[in-house]
């Protein structure tokens, strides 16, 4: 019966609808003051510290919460990118680092207020930082990389001054405080919602915000969209005025082709995750602004398990490194949109830089590859499986086909295996994959950080499962090396080892292609690889 | 009254007998998810610094640190309390997610099915009236095309033509324009909620958003509906009672609509029921292309990330809906053909 009534009702309505004329957009004036940002990802929590939170949740929290300090920005080849070396105050008006590097003192802004109007005090800062290192949340592992591990390290000096003590002069302590996790929470509000089971109010903060950020959350539909409203009193931006856009709409649009259509038609203002082919054609049409920045803190690899035969033999790894069709892969996967990490020339056979990642002097040279295979005792080649995850298939699929074709020429038979994302990460974690492609990202890209996190230990991010004590020691020592020249020398040594051992093959740093309406200005590539809504404005 | 009563009794019996099947689906999905390779904890612990500790913590949070039989017992007792678990993806209780997303899927599926029926039944009738004619072949060609083109292709094509080239359709991003405010929620069906709120402008925006996805879904299911209508109309038109009706000189309309079509409609209702259940789950591609916040795309995302609770919740929901739809079809039988309920 329900069926029938619905049907007649709808047909009547459909006729009335035909008589109505499409309503003219009545929000014409506010449209210019609204940023509509579309993304393939989705916000799943308002607190980025919750395990499982998405990249978009990270980006959102940058606008809803403030931190003590923030990264500055610099121009890299004419494009704005975040600058790890310039750290400016956000909630802190100023900060001092003691000469021995063991004490950081932050003086808070006197005029800083939370979104509920109460002032930001050193107590709030201490509570928030304590939460980050104590509660079972993501911030813990991150702050560990900056020697921030215990609540005892944070001391309130007076209501507007807080002191952070370090066990060692760690270069990464200060930058860590500018990352996503150590956001400053209104401790009075949060404590009111804490329970004995959940003293750090993680459940409540997942659905609510209590911060001092530039934007207030107006509506939050997990997985669909978030609408933000500007906080008029926020003045932590560069020019002591509130953020530009009165309203920000963060909308999830899963289909990349639809995102491209939206921005091309002018219905969306900004998108950063289009397919390389769409970016290419949009750029060619020239109607939109395209800002392509190599993701200089991210790397795509072809990785080999150094503990698993035949890849435990360094000559096999070298053979692969000389058998990959780098240029074709770069074109097929990324349409050349990125910074290559292959094809360098080292005149004296030594690394040109102590910075990681670096361009390795490898290019496709099948004769050389065959020689290495012979040296490995496998002149006839072998069979193996090359894996990639479904989520990356638009770039990895053409790449895998080229790898297979090229390796066949030196006798290596490759089967291509496409794995669902969860399965791929599980197998990587369990070290079960022999030969695969994956990417990494580091928020605080410094040479020692890369080597410590991605080339040591029996842990997930050590894709190649390399276990080289020398490499680990040099990287560990470099971490606390205050002398710049010595640090550079250690970096060069590590890079030379990388080329010699060839644990995995660095391919490239893909571009972040931000496509935006011509009126949008100020886009900056941020460490979290999403858009910081506070950066952009409309002319 | 007795006819209606009998139908109700039959329906009640059907409902009871489907409970074991639902339980079976519940346990089977649960086990299937555990057997799938891929550890959700590892997937969700993918922050740039997430290590072993984080993985363990998520595992604990999802209850994966217990043995599978224990997990099953906890899961069944949760279901008994009306708790479907929590999604890692959206961070929300699965029940809440499904409750919010189901009306979106239902609204789209109803609209698509309605469009499909409106197009398919006349097409089938016309084809059956002139079998072998140009019209019949035309209908066949149209149906073949509809089935051949996958829904996401027709969806993308429709977007390209009506949104991108002509600019007639609104942007294909969900159920409503982002700048329109939502009506107070009563049923979750936007078309109904807007009407209840008396907001016709809003109703029209929601309707415009619905047209393209509904059409691309309808195109796909017109074929089975039209074909079955044609086949069953052919049988019906060739039967004795129609010949009698014709010979006594009843009007064409009375013969075709009242006698032939009413008798031919039963298989169409059955197929419509099946088509409806399939559409609800299979419209994932349309939901993806049009960013429609429905249950199918939700389940697919959950499946890719091995997020157990939403997938289990989705399968349970689909199984329950299937049971319900079969019931409704049963009741419709009674209305279309009183003999069915007299039995």
Verbal overview:
The complex is a heterodimer of chains A (539) and B (343). Chain A has 539 residues and is α+β, with helices and mostly antiparallel strands. Chain A is built from 18 helices and 20 strands. In chain A, a hairpin with a 5-residue loop joins strand 4 (92-97) and strand 5 (103-108). The model of chain A is unreliable at 1-29 (pLDDT under 50). With 343 residues, chain B is mostly helical. Chain B has a single domain (94-336), classed as MetI-like fold. Helices cover 77% and strands 0% of the residues of chain B. Chain B has 15 helices and no strands. Chain B has helices spanning 2-35, 40-44, 52-61, 68-80, 94-129, 134-148, 151-165, 190-197, 200-237, 240-247, 252-282, 284-289, 295-304, 308-336, 338-342. In chain B, helix 5 runs antiparallel to helix 11 and helix 10 runs antiparallel to helix 11. Chain B starts with a helix and ends with a helix.
Task: Explain the layout of strands and helices.
The complex is a heterodimer of chains A (539) and B (343).
Chain A: H1 2-19, H2 28-32, E1 34-39, H3 55-64, E2 69-76, E3 79-89, E4 92-97, E5 103-108, H4 122-134, H5 139-144, E6 154-158, E7 161-165, H6 173-176, H7 187-192, H8 202-207, E8 215-221, E9 225-230, E10 247-252, H9 256-264, E11 270-271, H10 276-285, E12 289-294, E13 298-304, H11 314-323, H12 326-334, E14 338-340, H13 366-375, E15 383-389, H14 393-408, E16 413-419, H15 421-429, E17 435-441, H16 447-454, H17 469-479, H18 484-501, E18 504-516, E19 520-521, E20 537-538
Parallel strand pairs in A: 1-10, 15-16, 15-17
Antiparallel strand pairs in A: 2-3, 4-5, 5-7, 6-7, 8-9, 9-10, 11-18, 12-18, 13-17, 13-18, 14-18, 19-20
Chain B: H1 2-35, H2 40-44, H3 52-61, H4 68-80, H5 94-129, H6 134-148, H7 151-165, H8 190-197, H9 200-237, H10 240-247, H11 252-282, H12 284-289, H13 295-304, H14 308-336, H15 338-342
Helix pairs in contact in B: 1-14, 5-6, 5-9, 5-11, 6-9, 7-9, 8-9, 9-11, 10-11, 11-14, 13-14
């Amino acid at each position: 019966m329900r069926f029938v009534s619905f049907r007649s009702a709808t047909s009547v309505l459909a006729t009335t609808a035909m008589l109505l004329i499409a309503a003219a957009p009545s929000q014409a004036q506010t449209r210019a003051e609204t940023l509509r940002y579309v993304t393939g990802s989705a916000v799943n929590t308002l607190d980025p510290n919750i395990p499982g939170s998405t990249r978009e949740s990270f980006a959102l929290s940058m606008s809803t919460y403030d931190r003590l300090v923030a990264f500055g920005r610099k121009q890299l080849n004419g494009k704005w990118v975040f600058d790890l070396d310039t750290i400016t105050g956000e909630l802190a008006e100023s900060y001092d680092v003691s000469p021995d590097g063991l004490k950081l003192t932050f003086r808070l802004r006197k005029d800083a207020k939370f979104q509920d109007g109460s002032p930001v005090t050193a107590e709030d800062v201490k509570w928030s930082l304590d939460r980050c290192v104590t509660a079972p949340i993501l911030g813990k592992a991150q702050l560990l990389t900056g020697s921030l591990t215990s609540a005892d390290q944070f001391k309130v000096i007076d209501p507007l001054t807080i002191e952070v003590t370090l066990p060692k002069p760690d270069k990464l302590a200060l930058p860590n405080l500018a990352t996503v996790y150590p956001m400053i929470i209104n401790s009075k509000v949060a404590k009111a919602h804490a329970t004995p089971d959940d003293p750090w109010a993680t459940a409540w903060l997942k659905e609510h915000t209590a911060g001092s950020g530039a934007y207030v959350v107006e509506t939050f539909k997990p997985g669909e969209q978030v609408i933000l409203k500007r906080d008029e009193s926020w003045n932590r931006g560069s020019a002591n005025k509130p953020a530009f856009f009165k309203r920000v709409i963060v909308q999830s649009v899963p289909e990349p082709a639809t995102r491209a259509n939206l921005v091309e038609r002018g219905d969306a203002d900004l998108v950063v995750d289009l397919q390389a082919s769409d970016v290419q054609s949009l750029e060619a049409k020239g109607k939109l602004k395209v800002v392509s920045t190599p993701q200089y803190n991210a790397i795509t690899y072809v990785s080999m398990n150094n503990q698993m035969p035949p890849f435990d033999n360094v000559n096999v790894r070298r053979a692969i490194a000389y058998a990959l069709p780098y240029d074709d892969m770069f074109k097929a996967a990324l349409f050349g949109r990125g910074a290559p990490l292959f094809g360098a020339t080292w005149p004296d056979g030594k690394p040109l830089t102590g910075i990681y990642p670096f361009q390795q002097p490898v290019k496709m040279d099948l004769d050389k590859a065959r020689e290495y295979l012979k040296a490995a005792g496998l002149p006839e080649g072998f069979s193996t499986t090359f894996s990639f995850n479904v989520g990356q298939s638009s770039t990895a699929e053409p790449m895998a086909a080229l790898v297979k074709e090229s390796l066949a020429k030196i006798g290596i038979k490759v089967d291509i295996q496409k794995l669902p994302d969860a399965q791929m990460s599980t197998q990587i974690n369990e070290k079960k994959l022999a030969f695969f492609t994956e990417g990494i990202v580091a928020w605080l890209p410094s040479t020692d950080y890369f080597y410590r996190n991605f080339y040591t230990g029996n842990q997930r991010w050590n894709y190649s499962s390399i276990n080289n004590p020398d490499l680990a020691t040099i990287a560990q020592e470099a971490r606390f090396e205050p002398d710049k020249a010595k640090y550079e020398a250690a970096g060069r040594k590590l890079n030379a080892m990388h080329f010699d051992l060839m644990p995995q093959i660095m391919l490239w740093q893909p571009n972040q292609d931000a496509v935006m309406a011509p009126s949008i200005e100020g886009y900056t590539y941020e460490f979290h690889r999403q858009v910081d809504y506070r950066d952009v404005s409309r002319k | 009254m007795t006819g209606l009563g009998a139908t109700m009794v039959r329906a009640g019996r059907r409902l009871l007998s489907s409970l074991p099947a639902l339980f079976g689906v519940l346990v089977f999905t649960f086990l299937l998810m555990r057997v799938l390779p891929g550890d959700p904890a590892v997937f969700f612990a993918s922050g740039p610094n997430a290590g072993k500790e984080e993985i363990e913590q998520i595992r604990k949070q999802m209850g994966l640190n217990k043995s599978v039989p224990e997990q099953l017992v906890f899961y069944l007792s949760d279901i008994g309390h009306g708790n479907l678990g929590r999604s890692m993806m959206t961070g929300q209780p699965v029940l809440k997610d499904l409750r919010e997303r189901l009306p979106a899927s239902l609204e789209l599926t109803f609209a698509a099915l309605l469009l499909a029926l409106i197009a398919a039944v006349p097409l089938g009738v016309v084809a059956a009236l002139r079998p072998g004619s140009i019209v019949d072949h035309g209908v066949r060609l149209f149906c073949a095309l509809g089935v051949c083109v996958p829904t996401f292709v027709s969806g993308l094509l429709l977007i390209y033509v009506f949104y991108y080239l002509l600019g007639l359709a609104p942007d294909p991003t969900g159920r409503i324009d982002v700048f329109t405010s939502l009506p107070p929620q009563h049923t979750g069906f936007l078309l109904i909620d807007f009407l209840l709120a008396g907001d016709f402008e809003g109703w029209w925006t929601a309707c415009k958003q619905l047209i393209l996805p509904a059409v691309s879904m309808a195109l796909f299911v017109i074929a089975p509906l039209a074909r079955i209508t044609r086949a069953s109309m052919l049988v019906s038109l060739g039967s004795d009672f129609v010949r009698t009706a014709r010979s006594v000189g009843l009007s064409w309309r009375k013969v075709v609509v009242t006698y032939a079509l009413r008798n031919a409609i039963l298989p169409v209702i059955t197929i419509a029921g099946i088509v409806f259940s399939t559409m609800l789950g299979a419209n994932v591609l349309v939901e993806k292309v049009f960013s429609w916040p429905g249950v199918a795309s939700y389940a697919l995302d959950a499946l890719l990330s091995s997020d157990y609770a939403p997938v289990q919740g989705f399968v349970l929901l689909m199984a329950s809906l299937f049971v319900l739809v079969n019931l409704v079809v049963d009741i419709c039988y009674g209305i279309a053909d009183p003999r069915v309920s007299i039995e």
